[in-house]
Amino acid sequence: GWLSNGDKVPPAEFAKLAAEYSECPSG
C-alpha cells in the first residue's frame, strides 16, 4: 500500500495525506 512510502513523508505531510486518504478508499 501507499503506507510503504510513509518513511519518505514528513509527519506533518503524512498527517495531511492520511486525512485525505481516510476519505477515499485506499484498497
How would you describe what is shown here?
Helix content is 48%, strand content 0%. The chain is built from 1 helix and no strands. It has one helix spanning 11-23. The radius of gyration is 9 Å and the shape is elongated. It comes from Liquidambar obovata. Its EC number is 5.2.1.8. It catalyses: [protein]-peptidylproline (omega=180) = [protein]-peptidylproline (omega=0).
Q: Report the average pLDDT across residues.
A: 69
Order of helices and strands: H
Number of helices: 1
Report helical residue fraction. 40-55%
Rg over C-alpha atoms, rounded to the nearest angstrom: 9 Å
Distance between the termini: 8 Å
Structural class: mainly alpha
Low-pLDDT stretches are none
* Percent in strands: under 5%
Major sheet characteristics? none
Give the strand tally.
0
Overall 3D form = elongated
Keywords:
rotamase, mainly alpha, 1 helix, elongated, isomerase, 27 residues, 0% strand, peptidyl-prolyl cis-trans isomerase activity, peptidylprolyl isomerase
